[in-house]
Design brief:
Layout (H helix, E strand, L loop, with lengths): L7 H15 L5 H4 L2 H10 L6 H16 L3 H9 L9 H18 L3 H8 L3 H36 L8 E5 L7 H12 L3 E7 L2 E7 L6 H6 L5 E7 L2 E6 L4 H15 L12 E2 L7 H9 L12 E6 L2 E7 L5 E7 L4 E6 L15 E12 L2 E13 L4
Parallel strand pairs: 1-2, 6-7, 10-12
Antiparallel strand pairs: 2-3, 3-5, 4-5, 7-11, 8-9, 9-10, 11-12
Length: about 375
């Protein structure tokens, strides 16, 4: 098949499409299921290019139309605006609840949700998954804190370029999330393992330029099983092989990664606030759907000296929010897990901000919002 980027649900959809065509049915008979394909394509983090781009675009239309009772119900329980759904919101607010069904309990609940035509039953499952996801978030935070302590106490980051942590009592259903967060915090390949049925199983998350599956290939004789793609993989290993695995992975990462592991943000365009208008926002809309392979444009605005309302939000007070201004307009800026930048907004120094542009819906009003990626003090020329 010419396009190799389909996820499993995408392959299943193409089979359905071929059968539908063979039986002589109308194309819409199968296109109604693109909402499920869009959710699966987003969840599997495959590139939003080529055929995936069309499937996700059509799927988002079906999601917004509310044709699937289960999807509609979970969107409502998640307090999302169905008309403002995109890949990012699916990935951050919707899909974790679907994943929570299998991480902490019976994954069949998600199947029942997607296949029911009973709105009341869909609502019951959606509330159940919402509650399950809250449990998952608490467990994830506890495990992440445990992992941070292990790193601080036991790992020399000056010598080791890969992070490998394990604990016998971690929940296997969330180790992938913990690995992603540790990877993002340190910008290093990360492997998180836990014990299950007398064997250690875990998830790997990597950074650009380091193929984690290729690294695992060098340890294939030590592993019971492994597989994945360059940026993410899974593995299982016996306890007696852990030390050898640790040494070999450290040697491999030290050989293949540079000494400079600071995260790099690639900026697409330096943007003045005055350039952001209705026409510009419509132009960005034409580039959607965004996702892997077609990321949201990254902008930088420099020498901002008008900003206000700096505050920390959320249960853990880790979400940073403030407003930037020019003489004629203002924009809210929100940065998730960016508490470390709060002091920069209290210094009265000019700042440069790096961000994506997003649409926000609140209290019946749509507005343009910046999703913060970084803040630095301005360097005046």
């Amino acid at each position: 098949y010419p396009f190799k980027g389909l996820c499993g649900a995408g392959v299943a959809f193409k089979l359905c499409e071929a059968i539908n065509h063979k039986l002589g049915y109308d194309k819409e008979h199968v296109m109604q299921y693109t909402d499920l394909v869009a959710i699966a394509t987003t969840a599997d983090v495959v590139p939003i290019i080529d055929e995936n781009r069309l499937l996700v675009k059509e799927g988002l239309k079906n999601i917004k139309a509310g044709k699937n009772k289960g999807i509609k119900s979970l969107i409502q329980v998640s307090k999302l605006d169905s008309h403002n759904i995109n890949v990012g919101k699916l990935g951050y607010w919707f899909i974790p609840k679907i994943n929570a069904a299998g991480r902490l309990g019976d994954a069949a609940r998600a199947v029942k949700l997607f296949t029911t035509n009973n709105p009341q039953f869909a609502n019951e499952i959606s509330i159940d998954l919402e509650n399950e996801n809250e449990k998952r978030k608490l467990i994830t935070m506890q495990h992440e804190n445990d992992a941070q302590r292990i790193i601080n106490d036991s790992i020399d980051l000056k010598k080791n370029k890969i992070i490998i942590v394990y604990n016998d009592n971690w929940h296997f259903g969330v180790v992938g999330i913990v690995a992603s967060r540790i990877k993002d915090s340190y910008n290093r390949p990360t492997i998180v393992l836990t014990q299950e049925d007398n064997i250690y199983k875990g998830s790997c998350r990597s950074i650009h330029g380091y193929d984690i599956v290729s690294a695992l290939d060098q340890c294939s004789d030590l592993l019971e099983n492994y597989g994945g793609h360059p940026m993410a993989a899974g593995l299982s290993i016996t306890k007696e092989n852990l030390n050898s695995f640790y040494d070999r992975m450290n040697a491999h990462s030290n050989e293949h990664l540079s000494d400079e592991l600071n995260p790099i943000i690639n900026i697409d365009y330096e943007l003045n606030l005055s350039e952001i208008n209705t026409r510009f926002i419509k132009f960005l809309d034409y580039l959607e759907p965004f996702g892997p392979g077609n990321p949201k444009p990254v902008f930088v605005t420099k020498n901002i000296n008008q900003f206000s309302n700096a505050q920390l939000l959320g249960k853990d007070r880790e979400t940073l929010k403030f407003t930037v201004h020019n003489d004629s307009q203002s924009f809210d800026v929100i940065g998730f897990r960016m508490i470390e930048n709060y002091e920069k907004l209290l210094s009265n120094k000019d700042i440069d901000i790096v961000y994506n542009i997003d649409k926000n819906y609140w209290n019946g009003q749509h507005s343009t919002q910046f999703i913060l990626k970084d803040i630095v003090y301005s360097e005046k020329e």
